[in-house]
Amino acid sequence: MLFKRLLLAALLTAFTSASQAANNDSWQMLQKAAVAAHALSYQGIFVCQSGQQSKSVEIKHLFNGQHEFARNVVLDGLPREVLSQGGEVVIYNPKNEKIVIEKRRGQNMFPAILPTDLEAIKANYQLKFGETERVADRQAQILVLDAKDNLRYSYKFWVDSEYGLLLKSVMLNGKNEVLDSMAFNQLTLISAVDLDWFKPKIDAKKAYVMEDVNTIADKQEATHWRLKALPEGYVKVDQMMRAVKGKASPVTHLIFSDGLASVSLFIEPLENGIKPRNGRSLVGNTSFYANVAGNLQVTVVGEVPEATVAKIANAVVFVK
Amino acid sequence: MTEQLSALADNEIKLADAEHLLASMQANSPAAEAWSRYQLIGDVMRGTPTLSPDFKAKLMAKIDSEPTVLSPNASWFKPSLGADNVEAKSGSQSMVWSIAASFAAIFVVGFMVLQAQVGDPSLNASVASVETTTQAIPAEYLMAHQSSAPSSSSYYIQPASYTH
Questions:
Q1: How confident is the model at residue B129 (pLDDT cuts 50, 70, 90)?
Q2: Which B residues 14-73 touch A at CB under 8 Å?
Q3: What residue in B sits closest to A102 (Cα-Cα)?
């Protein structure tokens, strides 16, 4: 009897540690994918699909041991170009007869869509191994990143079995429908370190203009609002004052993240003579929610389920 | 903003901390006006005076330390030599009244703005429910979201509402 009990205990321990090990292995593989996207040099073509739209993008990414350079050219429709150096992103965006130069802080450009610190993701998602599949002529291991609750979407990642590079990623809603996908259909590693390709293709016939800077950092303590409990796993990552088109006064803009998804919260005073906005919608992977809190118009937008934008909007309390 | 500017004037906040304040005012003057109006509403709602609490005391101390200038008219009415002290007193007394009047004016203006914005019952009624009908996501907010927190597809695919 005692022997049987011991055997059972030993088996249980073995089983638990085995699944733990598999669990750790999957996180290690994801960690490797997060790093490989920055640390490898590669070029290829990937297809980006969101809602009804789809674009092919040519990418060249170089890591010279110290710095990271990438150039992405949209091959379909308008010839938009995205150049990045480290976390600095510059977009050459054709608009009418002009090219507007936009600056961004990019941390999630495919295939580098994962943060290198996975702690926040570990807290909010579960990871398990899926099947193996062939993508862009490469063998890939599928990793399934399931949301722990209905406040975020789930993901599937195809990781190159040899290089560890992310070959494909899809975002799924609770009904397992694909909302967004990015996938290489052609990929090669490169060893050259020259940088003569790292420049935009200049169209001499067009005027190049810088995008208007319409935000300033907001380090001030909020006096007219405060936040109640946020949806689980979301933390504030940024706050600024922003001039919004058609608004007389600057709008407070806060950004929340759960490690993968981002949500924007806009707080502004209700304007005299302008009807307050109340409503919600879901377009593709983007949810929108607007309501009124006391004297404030509250607007929330993000690539998250509707429940999350509603919770963030309802966390705003007007301080009298 | 008025409160902060007065705090700035009273050296209660450092100039460096007020940098954003000045920048935002310089950037857009209608915005600055609206923002100061907004601050004013907040001040009135919280019941805090627009000026810093000890503003009046400091101002009075300054006035007291200033030499009293007697107007010719006043001295014509009170020609006696011993009247200087009386003059000084009535002078600062009228100052107190004008300050009190300007406080009242600020309060009245603030209250009027407040009535127009908060007191409107239709606004309060709309707080109760959020329409469940779906609508297009307003482009200005979507653009603002994507410019500060871009999703990985938004670098290449722009929302349909984006105007070229």
A1: very low
A2: 17, 20, 23-24, 27-28, 30-31, 34-35, 38, 41-42, 45-46
A3: B147
The pLDDT of B18-32, averaged and rounded, is 47
Phi first, then psi, for residue A279 (nearest 5°) are 165, 175
Q: What is the mean pLDDT of chain B?
A: 54
Is residue A73 in some structural domain? yes
ipTM: 0.89
Closest CA to A188 of A68, A42, A45: A42
User: Do A25 and A138 fall into the same domain?
Assistant: yes
Would you say residue A135 lies in a domain? yes
CA distance A225 to chain B (A): 10
Q: Where does residue A246 fall: left (phi above 0), alpha (psi -120 to 50 degrees), or beta otherwise?
A: left
DSSP A254: E
Q: Determine, for residues B157 and A55 on separate chains, whether the beta-carbon distance falls below 8 Å.
A: yes
Tell whether the model's pLDDT for residue B127 goes beyond 50.
no
pLDDT category, A273, cuts 50, 70, 90? confident
Question: Which domain CATH number covers A233?
Answer: 3.30.200.100
Are A313 and A289 in contact by the 8 Å Cβ rule? The answer is yes
Which amino acid belongs to residue A202? Answer: I
DSSP code string of A266-315: EEEEPPTTSPPP-EEEEETTEEEEEEEETTEEEEEEESS-HHHHHHHHHT
B121 vs A contacts (CB less than 8 Å): none
The pLDDT of residue B65 is 65
**CB contact residues (below 8 A), chain B span 122-151, against chain A:** 123, 126-127, 129-138, 140-145, 147-151
pLDDT at A218: 82
Q: Residues A7-41: pLDDT tens digits?
A: 556 655 555 566 667 778 999 999 999 999 999 99
If residue A239 lies in a helix (H) or strand (E), which one and from where to where? strand A235-242
Range of the domain at A189: 19-210
